[in-house]
Amino acid sequence: MDRMELVKTGEPILTTSVMDGLYKASYWLVAYEGKIVGVALYHNSNKHCTLALIQDKNGDKLLLGHFRDGYPVPDKEFFELHKIYDWAFQK
């Protein structure tokens, strides 16, 4: 599974303004092949997520990500992603 194969489902769970309004961060439940597998962080209205926490085939938490200039990921975003994942999957 690749982060670019993940599909947003429903509405964003949380949307925040980050780094003094430099960009918007939205957290979504994401699906792979029609099954909800995790939570992903999208910056602005990008088609693909920056980070995703998904369940692997063993049910363990797996981080997928793409880091590049212009899309810094502050600690707060990692914390929110973990918190939402744990809420969504009752961890």
Task: Please give a quick description of this structure.
The protein is α+β, with helices and mostly antiparallel strands and 91 residues long.
Describe the structure.
The structure is a single chain. The protein has 91 residues and is of the alpha+beta class. It has one domain (3-71). The protein is 15% helix and 45% strand. It is built from one helix and five strands; from the N terminus they run βββββα. The protein has one helix at residues 75-88, and strands at 7-18, 23-32, 35-43, 51-55, 61-65. The chain has a five-stranded antiparallel sheet with strand order 1-2-3-4-5, with helices on one face. The longest helix is centred in the C-terminal third of the chain and has 14 residues, at 75-88.
What's the end-to-end separation, in Å? 22 Å
Number of domains: 1
Sheet with most strands: strand arrangement: 1-2-3-4-5
| Poorly predicted parts | none
Helicity level: 10-25%
What's the overall average pLDDT, rounded? 90
Counted by DSSP, the helix tally is 1
- Cα gyration radius (Å): 12 Å
Strand and helix order: EEEEEH
Give the helix/strand class.
Answer: alpha+beta
Q: Say how many strands there are.
A: 5
Morphology call? globular
Strand content: over 45%
Q: In this structure, how is the largest beta sheet organized?
A: 5 strands, antiparallel
